[in-house]
Protein backbone atom coordinates (compact mmCIF):
# COMPACT_ATOMS: atom_id res chain seq x y z
CA UNK A 1 0.00 0.00 0.00
CA UNK A 2 1.28 3.46 -0.88
CA UNK A 3 1.92 5.76 2.05
CA UNK A 4 -0.48 8.41 0.77
CA UNK A 5 -3.33 5.89 0.61
CA UNK A 6 -2.44 4.55 4.07
CA UNK A 7 -2.61 8.07 5.51
CA UNK A 8 -5.85 8.86 3.70
CA UNK A 9 -7.56 5.73 5.02
CA UNK A 10 -6.55 6.36 8.63
CA UNK A 11 -6.13 10.14 9.08
CA UNK A 12 -9.65 10.75 10.43
CA UNK A 13 -9.19 8.00 13.00
CA UNK A 14 -5.83 9.41 14.11
CA UNK A 15 -7.28 12.90 14.46
CA UNK A 16 -10.00 11.50 16.69
CA UNK A 17 -7.47 9.60 18.80
CA UNK A 18 -5.30 12.72 19.15
CA UNK A 19 -7.94 14.35 21.33
CA UNK A 20 -7.86 11.53 23.90
CA UNK A 21 -11.38 12.30 25.10
CA UNK A 22 -12.21 8.86 26.51
CA UNK A 23 -11.63 7.98 30.15
CA UNK A 24 -12.88 4.42 29.69
CA UNK A 25 -9.84 2.15 30.23
CA UNK A 26 -11.18 -0.57 27.91
CA UNK A 27 -11.81 1.92 25.11
CA UNK A 28 -8.43 3.58 25.65
CA UNK A 29 -6.71 0.19 25.53
CA UNK A 30 -8.54 -0.65 22.29
CA UNK A 31 -7.44 2.66 20.74
CA UNK A 32 -3.87 2.11 21.91
CA UNK A 33 -3.81 -1.33 20.27
CA UNK A 34 -5.16 0.17 17.03
CA UNK A 35 -2.45 2.87 17.04
CA UNK A 36 0.36 0.39 17.75
CA UNK A 37 -0.90 -1.84 14.92
CA UNK A 38 -0.74 1.14 12.53
CA UNK A 39 2.68 2.06 13.89
CA UNK A 40 4.00 -1.46 13.31
CA UNK A 41 2.68 -1.36 9.74
CA UNK A 42 4.28 2.04 9.13
CA UNK A 43 7.62 0.91 10.59
CA UNK A 44 7.59 -2.06 8.25
CA UNK A 45 6.80 -0.22 5.02
CA UNK A 46 7.72 3.43 5.69
CA UNK A 47 10.43 3.22 8.37
CA UNK A 48 11.88 6.73 7.88
CA UNK A 49 8.75 8.65 6.96
CA UNK A 50 7.03 11.47 8.82
CA UNK A 51 3.96 9.25 9.16
CA UNK A 52 5.94 6.75 11.22
CA UNK A 53 7.36 9.51 13.43
CA UNK A 54 3.86 10.93 13.94
CA UNK A 55 2.40 7.55 14.89
CA UNK A 56 5.29 6.87 17.22
CA UNK A 57 4.58 10.13 19.05
CA UNK A 58 0.85 9.40 19.21
CA UNK A 59 1.48 5.90 20.56
CA UNK A 60 3.84 7.35 23.20
CA UNK A 61 1.16 9.79 24.34
CA UNK A 62 -1.32 6.95 24.71
CA UNK A 63 1.20 4.87 26.61
CA UNK A 64 1.93 7.68 29.03
CA UNK A 65 -1.76 8.43 29.47
CA UNK A 66 -2.58 4.81 30.21
CA UNK A 67 0.20 4.25 32.72
CA UNK A 68 -0.35 7.57 34.49
CA UNK A 69 -3.90 6.45 35.19
CA UNK A 70 -3.49 5.32 38.79
CA UNK A 71 -6.99 3.92 39.01
CA UNK A 72 -6.36 1.53 36.15
CA UNK A 73 -2.96 0.63 37.54
CA UNK A 74 -4.44 -0.21 40.92
CA UNK A 75 -7.03 -2.40 39.20
CA UNK A 76 -4.58 -3.97 36.76
CA UNK A 77 -4.92 -7.44 38.27
CA UNK A 78 -8.73 -7.30 38.10
CA UNK A 79 -8.84 -5.78 34.60
CA UNK A 80 -6.62 -8.52 33.20
CA UNK A 81 -9.28 -11.18 33.81
CA UNK A 82 -12.17 -8.78 33.29
CA UNK A 83 -11.28 -7.58 29.80
CA UNK A 84 -7.73 -8.20 28.59
CA UNK A 85 -7.77 -12.00 28.68
CA UNK A 86 -11.29 -12.33 27.21
CA UNK A 87 -10.28 -10.03 24.34
CA UNK A 88 -7.29 -12.27 23.68
CA UNK A 89 -9.68 -15.22 23.44
CA UNK A 90 -11.77 -13.21 20.98
CA UNK A 91 -8.73 -12.24 18.88
CA UNK A 92 -7.52 -15.84 18.74
CA UNK A 93 -10.75 -17.73 18.11
CA UNK A 94 -9.25 -19.70 15.24
CA UNK A 95 -6.30 -21.13 17.24
CA UNK A 96 -8.78 -22.04 20.00
CA UNK A 97 -11.00 -23.83 17.50
CA UNK A 98 -8.07 -25.60 15.82
CA UNK A 99 -6.65 -26.70 19.16
CA UNK A 100 -10.03 -28.15 20.16
CA UNK A 101 -10.48 -29.95 16.83
CA UNK A 102 -6.97 -31.42 16.95
CA UNK A 103 -7.44 -32.55 20.54
CA UNK A 104 -10.81 -34.19 19.81
CA UNK A 105 -9.35 -35.93 16.75
CA UNK A 106 -6.38 -37.25 18.71
CA UNK A 107 -8.68 -38.39 21.54
CA UNK A 108 -10.80 -40.31 19.03
CA UNK A 109 -7.62 -41.93 17.66
CA UNK A 110 -6.66 -42.96 21.19
CA UNK A 111 -10.08 -44.48 21.88
CA UNK A 112 -10.20 -46.35 18.56
CA UNK A 113 -6.65 -47.63 19.02
CA UNK A 114 -7.56 -48.94 22.49
CA UNK A 115 -10.67 -50.62 21.06
CA UNK A 116 -8.84 -52.53 18.33
CA UNK A 117 -5.55 -53.22 20.17
CA UNK A 118 -5.73 -54.90 23.58
CA UNK A 119 -2.17 -53.82 24.42
CA UNK A 120 -2.64 -50.14 23.57
CA UNK A 121 -4.00 -49.03 26.95
CA UNK A 122 -1.02 -50.55 28.77
CA UNK A 123 1.34 -48.97 26.26
CA UNK A 124 -0.12 -45.51 26.87
CA UNK A 125 -1.07 -45.59 30.56
CA UNK A 126 1.60 -48.02 31.78
CA UNK A 127 1.33 -51.46 33.39
CA UNK A 128 1.50 -50.02 36.91
CA UNK A 129 -1.56 -47.82 36.51
CA UNK A 130 -3.60 -50.47 34.67
CA UNK A 131 -2.79 -53.18 37.23
CA UNK A 132 -3.62 -50.87 40.12
CA UNK A 133 -6.93 -49.85 38.54
CA UNK A 134 -7.81 -53.48 37.78
CA UNK A 135 -7.24 -54.28 41.45
CA UNK A 136 -9.42 -51.34 42.47
CA UNK A 137 -12.19 -52.52 40.15
CA UNK A 138 -12.08 -55.98 41.73
CA UNK A 139 -12.31 -54.37 45.18
CA UNK A 140 -15.39 -52.42 44.08
CA UNK A 141 -13.61 -49.04 44.16
CA UNK A 142 -12.54 -48.37 40.54
CA UNK A 143 -11.55 -44.76 41.25
CA UNK A 144 -9.58 -45.45 44.38
CA UNK A 145 -6.53 -43.80 42.86
CA UNK A 146 -8.04 -40.44 43.82
CA UNK A 147 -7.97 -41.48 47.48
CA UNK A 148 -4.39 -42.71 47.45
CA UNK A 149 -2.87 -39.50 48.90
CA UNK A 150 -4.13 -36.83 51.22
CA UNK A 151 -6.04 -33.93 49.66
CA UNK A 152 -3.38 -31.24 50.14
CA UNK A 153 -0.59 -33.35 48.64
CA UNK A 154 -2.73 -34.19 45.62
CA UNK A 155 -3.76 -30.56 45.18
CA UNK A 156 -0.17 -29.28 45.17
CA UNK A 157 1.19 -32.04 42.93
CA UNK A 158 -1.65 -31.85 40.39
CA UNK A 159 -1.61 -28.05 40.22
CA UNK A 160 2.16 -27.93 39.65
CA UNK A 161 2.04 -30.73 37.07
CA UNK A 162 -0.81 -29.20 35.07
CA UNK A 163 0.78 -25.75 35.05
CA UNK A 164 4.06 -27.34 33.90
CA UNK A 165 2.28 -29.28 31.13
CA UNK A 166 0.48 -26.17 29.88
CA UNK A 167 3.64 -24.05 29.93
CA UNK A 168 5.56 -26.75 28.07
CA UNK A 169 2.78 -27.04 25.49
CA UNK A 170 2.99 -23.28 24.95
CA UNK A 171 6.80 -23.12 24.66
CA UNK A 172 6.79 -25.99 22.15
CA UNK A 173 4.95 -23.63 19.83
CA UNK A 174 8.39 -22.18 19.05
CA UNK A 175 8.89 -25.26 16.88
CA UNK A 176 6.62 -23.73 14.22
CA UNK A 177 3.50 -25.04 16.05
CA UNK A 178 4.58 -28.66 15.43
CA UNK A 179 5.74 -29.07 19.02
CA UNK A 180 2.37 -27.94 20.36
CA UNK A 181 0.55 -30.30 18.00
CA UNK A 182 2.71 -33.15 19.28
CA UNK A 183 1.81 -32.25 22.88
CA UNK A 184 -1.88 -32.17 21.93
CA UNK A 185 -1.40 -35.55 20.23
CA UNK A 186 0.09 -37.13 23.36
CA UNK A 187 -2.51 -35.72 25.71
CA UNK A 188 -5.40 -36.44 23.35
CA UNK A 189 -4.41 -40.07 22.73
CA UNK A 190 -3.87 -40.57 26.47
CA UNK A 191 -7.32 -39.20 27.28
CA UNK A 192 -8.99 -41.30 24.57
CA UNK A 193 -7.32 -44.52 25.74
CA UNK A 194 -7.99 -43.66 29.39
CA UNK A 195 -11.68 -43.00 28.82
CA UNK A 196 -12.16 -46.06 26.61
CA UNK A 197 -10.56 -48.25 29.29
CA UNK A 198 -13.38 -47.43 31.73
CA UNK A 199 -16.09 -47.80 29.09
CA UNK A 200 -14.73 -51.23 28.17
CA UNK A 201 -15.18 -52.27 31.82
CA UNK A 202 -18.75 -51.03 31.96
CA UNK A 203 -17.79 -47.96 33.97
CA UNK A 204 -18.22 -45.29 31.31
CA UNK A 205 -21.05 -43.31 32.86
CA UNK A 206 -19.58 -43.63 36.34
CA UNK A 207 -16.17 -42.46 35.07
CA UNK A 208 -17.77 -39.34 33.58
CA UNK A 209 -19.53 -38.53 36.85
CA UNK A 210 -16.29 -38.93 38.81
CA UNK A 211 -13.35 -38.02 36.58
CA UNK A 212 -14.93 -35.10 34.76
CA UNK A 213 -15.68 -33.32 38.01
CA UNK A 214 -12.15 -31.96 37.69
CA UNK A 215 -11.54 -33.02 34.10
CA UNK A 216 -13.90 -30.46 32.58
CA UNK A 217 -11.75 -27.54 33.71
CA UNK A 218 -8.46 -29.41 33.40
CA UNK A 219 -8.94 -30.62 29.82
CA UNK A 220 -10.45 -27.31 28.73
CA UNK A 221 -7.38 -25.50 30.07
CA UNK A 222 -5.07 -27.91 28.22
CA UNK A 223 -6.92 -27.17 24.97
CA UNK A 224 -6.56 -23.43 25.63
CA UNK A 225 -2.85 -23.93 26.38
CA UNK A 226 -2.61 -25.65 23.00
CA UNK A 227 -4.18 -22.57 21.42
CA UNK A 228 -1.55 -20.39 23.14
CA UNK A 229 1.16 -22.58 21.60
CA UNK A 230 -0.43 -22.21 18.17
CA UNK A 231 -0.54 -18.43 18.65
CA UNK A 232 3.20 -18.50 19.30
CA UNK A 233 4.00 -20.83 16.41
CA UNK A 234 1.75 -19.06 13.93
CA UNK A 235 3.36 -15.73 14.80
CA UNK A 236 6.53 -17.16 13.25
CA UNK A 237 4.85 -18.85 10.32
CA UNK A 238 2.43 -16.04 9.43
CA UNK A 239 3.85 -12.62 10.43
CA UNK A 240 1.29 -10.77 8.24
CA UNK A 241 2.27 -7.08 7.98
CA UNK A 242 4.84 -7.27 10.78
CA UNK A 243 8.46 -8.26 10.59
CA UNK A 244 8.97 -11.83 11.72
CA UNK A 245 10.77 -10.70 14.88
CA UNK A 246 8.03 -8.22 15.78
CA UNK A 247 5.35 -10.83 15.06
CA UNK A 248 7.17 -13.33 17.30
CA UNK A 249 7.33 -10.80 20.13
CA UNK A 250 3.61 -10.16 19.87
CA UNK A 251 2.80 -13.87 19.68
CA UNK A 252 5.01 -14.66 22.68
CA UNK A 253 3.49 -11.84 24.72
CA UNK A 254 -0.11 -12.74 23.96
CA UNK A 255 0.50 -16.47 24.38
CA UNK A 256 2.17 -15.87 27.74
CA UNK A 257 -0.83 -13.85 28.91
CA UNK A 258 -3.13 -16.72 27.96
CA UNK A 259 -1.00 -19.20 29.92
CA UNK A 260 -0.95 -16.91 32.96
CA UNK A 261 -4.72 -16.59 32.68
CA UNK A 262 -5.05 -20.39 32.89
CA UNK A 263 -3.39 -20.62 36.32
CA UNK A 264 -6.61 -20.00 38.33
CA UNK A 265 -8.42 -22.59 36.20
CA UNK A 266 -5.73 -25.18 36.87
CA UNK A 267 -5.77 -24.35 40.58
CA UNK A 268 -9.53 -24.81 40.66
CA UNK A 269 -9.26 -28.11 38.75
CA UNK A 270 -6.54 -29.31 41.16
CA UNK A 271 -8.72 -28.36 44.13
CA UNK A 272 -11.63 -30.36 42.70
CA UNK A 273 -9.41 -33.37 42.00
CA UNK A 274 -7.70 -33.25 45.39
CA UNK A 275 -10.70 -32.50 47.59
CA UNK A 276 -13.89 -33.38 45.70
CA UNK A 277 -13.25 -36.18 43.17
CA UNK A 278 -12.20 -38.58 45.96
CA UNK A 279 -15.81 -38.61 47.17
CA UNK A 280 -16.85 -41.14 44.54
CA UNK A 281 -20.14 -41.92 46.26
CA UNK A 282 -21.50 -38.39 46.09
CA UNK A 283 -25.08 -37.99 44.79
CA UNK A 284 -25.44 -38.02 41.02
CA UNK A 285 -27.19 -34.63 41.05
CA UNK A 286 -24.23 -33.03 42.82
CA UNK A 287 -21.71 -34.48 40.39
CA UNK A 288 -23.77 -33.34 37.41
CA UNK A 289 -24.14 -29.87 38.96
CA UNK A 290 -20.36 -29.49 39.29
CA UNK A 291 -19.83 -30.76 35.73
CA UNK A 292 -22.47 -28.42 34.33
CA UNK A 293 -21.16 -25.40 36.26
CA UNK A 294 -17.61 -26.03 35.01
CA UNK A 295 -18.76 -26.50 31.40
CA UNK A 296 -20.98 -23.41 31.45
CA UNK A 297 -18.16 -21.33 32.92
CA UNK A 298 -15.73 -22.35 30.16
CA UNK A 299 -18.25 -21.68 27.38
CA UNK A 300 -19.23 -18.35 28.91
CA UNK A 301 -15.75 -17.03 29.71
CA UNK A 302 -13.92 -18.28 26.60
CA UNK A 303 -16.65 -17.87 23.95
CA UNK A 304 -19.68 -15.80 24.99
CA UNK A 305 -18.19 -13.16 27.29
CA UNK A 306 -15.28 -12.26 24.94
CA UNK A 307 -17.78 -11.50 22.18
CA UNK A 308 -19.81 -9.31 24.51
CA UNK A 309 -16.68 -7.41 25.58
CA UNK A 310 -15.60 -7.02 21.96
CA UNK A 311 -18.97 -5.59 20.96
CA UNK A 312 -18.90 -3.24 23.94
CA UNK A 313 -15.46 -1.88 23.04
CA UNK A 314 -16.42 -1.62 19.37
CA UNK A 315 -19.91 -0.05 19.49
CA UNK A 316 -19.89 0.84 15.79
CA UNK A 317 -19.13 -2.72 14.71
CA UNK A 318 -22.68 -3.64 13.75
CA UNK A 319 -23.15 -0.39 11.86
CA UNK A 320 -20.02 -1.05 9.79
CA UNK A 321 -21.12 -4.62 9.07
CA UNK A 322 -24.50 -3.39 7.77
Automatic annotation (TrEMBL):
<feature type="transmembrane region" description="Helical">
    <location>
        <begin position="196"/>
        <end position="213"/>
    </location>
</feature>
<feature type="transmembrane region" description="Helical">
    <location>
        <begin position="219"/>
        <end position="238"/>
    </location>
</feature>
<feature type="transmembrane region" description="Helical">
    <location>
        <begin position="282"/>
        <end position="303"/>
    </location>
</feature>
<keyword id="KW-0472">Membrane</keyword>
<protein>
    <submittedName>
        <fullName>Stage II sporulation protein M</fullName>
    </submittedName>
</protein>
<feature type="transmembrane region" description="Helical">
    <location>
        <begin position="258"/>
        <end position="276"/>
    </location>
</feature>
<feature type="transmembrane region" description="Helical">
    <location>
        <begin position="96"/>
        <end position="114"/>
    </location>
</feature>
<dbReference type="InterPro" id="IPR002798">
    <property type="entry name" value="SpoIIM-like"/>
</dbReference>
<dbReference type="Pfam" id="PF01944">
    <property type="entry name" value="SpoIIM"/>
</dbReference>
<feature type="transmembrane region" description="Helical">
    <location>
        <begin position="163"/>
        <end position="184"/>
    </location>
</feature>
<keyword id="KW-1133">Transmembrane helix</keyword>
<keyword id="KW-0812">Transmembrane</keyword>
Amino acid sequence: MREALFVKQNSSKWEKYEKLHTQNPDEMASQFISITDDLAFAKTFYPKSKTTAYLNGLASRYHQSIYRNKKEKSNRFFLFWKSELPLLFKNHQKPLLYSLLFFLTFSAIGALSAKYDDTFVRLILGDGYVNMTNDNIEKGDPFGVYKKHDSLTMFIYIAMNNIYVSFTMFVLGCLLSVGTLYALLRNGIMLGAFQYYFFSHGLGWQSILVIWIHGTLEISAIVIAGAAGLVLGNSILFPKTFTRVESLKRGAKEGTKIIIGLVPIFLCAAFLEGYITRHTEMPVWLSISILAASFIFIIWYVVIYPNLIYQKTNPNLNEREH
